[in-house]
Design a protein that fits this description.
single chain, mainly alpha, 5 helices, 87 residues
């Protein structure tokens, strides 16, 4: 099953599934939020955790590639300030 398939089963977005998987794996997610609605959706996913079987299937997708640039202290602080202004 793919991330999109898992998302479909939960009525969620693939991004929400990835955030939920990260939380389940004890990784602190720092999702970007282009707008308040996206930020709200990222927080809502924590209400229904993924099963261990789903997490194992997602783990198996790992190809050891990094798709995002490394965060800098400046970009991290900018993101936190933007996020905190909405809550």
């Amino acid at each position: 099953m793919t991330i999109a398939g898992i998302a479909h089963n939960y009525g969620a977005t693939p991004a929400q599934v990835i955030v939920a998987w990260m939380v389940r794996r004890k990784v602190i997610p720092l999702p970007r939020g282009g707008n308040v609605e996206h930020m709200r959706l990222n927080v809502e996913v924590l209400r229904e955790p993924l099963s261990e079987g789903e997490c194992i299937r997602i783990d198996a997708l790992n190809k050891g590639q990094h798709l995002l640039k490394e965060a800098t202290p400046r970009s991290f602080n900018r993101h936190l300030n933007k996020l905190s202004s909405h809550f």
